[in-house]
Input
Amino acid sequence: MSLSKRNEFKIEILEDGTIQIRRADIFLEDDVEIAKSYHRYSFNPGDNVSDQTTRIQNVCATVWTQDVIDAYIAAQAAQDPSVDPNP
Output
Protein backbone atom coordinates (compact mmCIF):
# COMPACT_ATOMS: atom_id res chain seq x y z
CA MET A 1 0.00 0.00 0.00
CA SER A 2 1.42 3.34 -1.10
CA LEU A 3 0.03 6.60 0.27
CA SER A 4 0.74 9.94 -1.41
CA LYS A 5 -0.58 13.45 -1.69
CA ARG A 6 -0.67 15.95 -4.53
CA ASN A 7 -1.95 19.50 -4.90
CA GLU A 8 -3.93 21.05 -7.71
CA PHE A 9 -4.50 24.78 -8.04
CA LYS A 10 -7.29 26.79 -9.64
CA ILE A 11 -6.33 30.43 -10.16
CA GLU A 12 -8.95 33.12 -10.73
CA ILE A 13 -8.27 36.76 -11.56
CA LEU A 14 -10.87 39.30 -10.45
CA GLU A 15 -11.57 42.56 -12.25
CA ASP A 16 -9.67 44.61 -9.64
CA GLY A 17 -6.58 42.41 -10.01
CA THR A 18 -7.17 40.29 -6.92
CA ILE A 19 -5.92 36.72 -7.43
CA GLN A 20 -8.04 33.98 -5.86
CA ILE A 21 -6.54 30.54 -5.34
CA ARG A 22 -8.35 27.27 -4.70
CA ARG A 23 -5.94 24.54 -3.66
CA ALA A 24 -7.11 20.94 -3.73
CA ASP A 25 -5.18 18.53 -1.52
CA ILE A 26 -5.66 15.11 -3.08
CA PHE A 27 -4.79 12.01 -1.08
CA LEU A 28 -4.03 8.82 -2.96
CA GLU A 29 -3.65 5.18 -2.06
CA ASP A 30 -1.91 3.17 -4.77
CA ASP A 31 -2.59 6.06 -7.18
CA VAL A 32 -6.34 5.94 -6.46
CA GLU A 33 -7.92 9.05 -4.95
CA ILE A 34 -9.26 8.34 -1.48
CA ALA A 35 -9.86 11.87 -0.18
CA LYS A 36 -9.81 15.49 -1.27
CA SER A 37 -9.96 18.75 0.65
CA TYR A 38 -10.13 22.33 -0.59
CA HIS A 39 -8.53 25.49 0.72
CA ARG A 40 -9.19 29.00 -0.59
CA TYR A 41 -7.15 32.15 -0.22
CA SER A 42 -6.53 35.35 -2.15
CA PHE A 43 -3.90 37.98 -2.81
CA ASN A 44 -4.46 41.65 -3.51
CA PRO A 45 -2.39 43.53 -6.10
CA GLY A 46 1.05 44.23 -4.67
CA ASP A 47 0.92 41.53 -1.95
CA ASN A 48 4.06 39.49 -1.27
CA VAL A 49 3.67 36.10 -2.96
CA SER A 50 7.29 34.96 -2.66
CA ASP A 51 6.27 31.91 -0.62
CA GLN A 52 3.84 30.69 -3.29
CA THR A 53 4.41 28.29 -6.18
CA THR A 54 6.30 29.56 -9.21
CA ARG A 55 3.10 29.35 -11.26
CA ILE A 56 1.21 31.61 -8.82
CA GLN A 57 4.15 34.03 -8.66
CA ASN A 58 4.25 34.20 -12.46
CA VAL A 59 0.52 34.88 -12.74
CA CYS A 60 0.76 37.67 -10.15
CA ALA A 61 3.80 39.21 -11.85
CA THR A 62 1.97 39.21 -15.18
CA VAL A 63 -1.34 40.58 -13.90
CA TRP A 64 -0.04 43.09 -11.38
CA THR A 65 1.31 45.85 -13.56
CA GLN A 66 2.04 49.12 -11.77
CA ASP A 67 -1.21 50.51 -13.21
CA VAL A 68 -3.21 47.63 -11.69
CA ILE A 69 -1.53 48.08 -8.30
CA ASP A 70 -2.10 51.85 -8.36
CA ALA A 71 -5.77 51.45 -9.35
CA TYR A 72 -6.32 48.89 -6.59
CA ILE A 73 -4.75 51.15 -3.95
CA ALA A 74 -6.77 54.14 -5.18
CA ALA A 75 -10.01 52.12 -5.03
CA GLN A 76 -9.20 50.98 -1.49
CA ALA A 77 -8.41 54.56 -0.45
CA ALA A 78 -11.73 55.74 -1.90
CA GLN A 79 -13.59 53.15 0.20
CA ASP A 80 -11.53 53.67 3.35
CA PRO A 81 -9.97 57.10 3.95
CA SER A 82 -7.45 55.57 6.39
CA VAL A 83 -5.73 53.75 3.48
CA ASP A 84 -2.66 55.66 2.30
CA PRO A 85 -2.83 55.93 -1.52
CA ASN A 86 0.94 56.59 -1.58
CA PRO A 87 2.48 53.81 0.53
Summary: The mean pLDDT is 93. The radius of gyration is 17 Å. The helical segments are 54-63, 66-79. DSSP finds two helices and three strands in the chain.
